[in-house]
Amino acid sequence: TLDNLVSYIRSWSLEYFDNTPIACKVNVPDTIPEKELAGDKRRNIFLCVKETLNNVLKHSKAELVTITIEANHSLRIEIADNGAGIDIQNLRQFGNGLKNIARRMESINGTFKIENRNGTVTTLELPL
Fold this sequence. Notes:
By secondary structure, this protein is α+β, with helices and mostly antiparallel strands. Helix content is about 35%, strand content about 25%. The protein is built from 3 helices and 5 strands. A 5-stranded mixed β-sheet has the order 1-2-3-5-4. The longest helix has 21 residues, at about 40-60. About 30% of the residues are buried.
């Protein structure tokens, strides 16, 4: 279910940043709609979150990452760090992580956006 996915992302993310220099904060809604979510959608969303958090840990030089999850007409996951920000003009040509995220989200009819806003903000959105 959607609720299971949100809970899993929350606990996995907090554990991932344990024993790292980056603090992790996860904001989830009090109530999550009772929705079944197909396995491929759950898997692709989770792998996109995982790749994004890996990028934060590896590249951001951040002290804090905040994951905000909203679920109403769509599942929206915003991952924001307070690090150096992403230089969108100078991404490595052969870096596959962001391409994989874009491809995964596209394959489940979702969207992916990455911006520089006092750090890097990645938004994953999936219509429900």
